[in-house]
Amino acid sequence: SRELLERSEKLAAVGQLAAGIAHEIRNPLTALKGFIDLMHRKAKGNNKRYLEIMKGEVGRMELILGELLMLAKPQQVHYSMEDVDLLLQEIVAFMSPQAIIHNVVIETSFREDLPQITCEPNQLKQVFINIVRNGIEAMDGGGTLRVLATRSGDYVRIDFVDEGIGISPEKLQHIGEPFFTTKEQGTGLGMMVSQRIVAEHGGRMSVQSTIGQGTTVTIELPIALHRNMTATDEERI
Ligand code: ADP
Ligand code: MG
């Protein structure tokens, strides 16, 4: 509908603006960080303590900027045909040290003949990292995170199923809003960025949760129907 289109255009504009600002702030922040590090090495007593706090806060600013920068269109948009199971396998390996620290076991179950999808693999990997990280962070006492991939109609469907604290219905409404977080060290940007990337891929994302039992995040991405799609074909669609 027209309204939905206007909304998505607005969101895209906000995203571009946020990413632009993040980019401008990153360079001066890097300079600040360098000098703080330098002073910290030489400082003593209270000064050293204050500079440690400054280092921590600058680190947090970098984290937020990093997530905002994900809203920027990648400099080189390079869509390619990818096997989702391979991308997921890569992320599971990448996240396994963090999982181990939190006593979390990650189990995978991928349908064997999964069709390929057309995607920007680096952006999609960022989505998977965000969701896996949330799953791990939701399981304070450890547990199992299941990553399932299957086919559902014209989509590849991925479920991330955790046994974590869950999300109340009131909070569920706010997930994906910029800066909505329940974590002391959270940025509240991971889900918004993920939702945007999935939408840009023509996919959809949903969250189901039961308090005290766990959360399932589901992503559906359209399968690549045109194996030898050329730029002209793409324009025609
Ligand atoms: P952050 O992780 O920095 O808080 P996100 O955008 O990734 O930001 O997530 C927003 C909020 O959504 C989290 O603070 C948390 O309350 C909730 N959330 C997301 N994923 C899960 C999950 N798997 N289990 C429980 N809560 C979740
Ligand atoms: Mg997160």
Automatic annotation (TrEMBL):
Q: Which residues form a coiled coil?
A: none
* Residues covered by the Histidine kinase domain: 20-225
* Name assigned to this protein: histidine kinase
State the organism's lineage: Bacteria, Bacillati, Bacillota, Bacilli, Bacillales
Give the fragment's position in the full-length protein.
Answer: 396 to 632 of 632
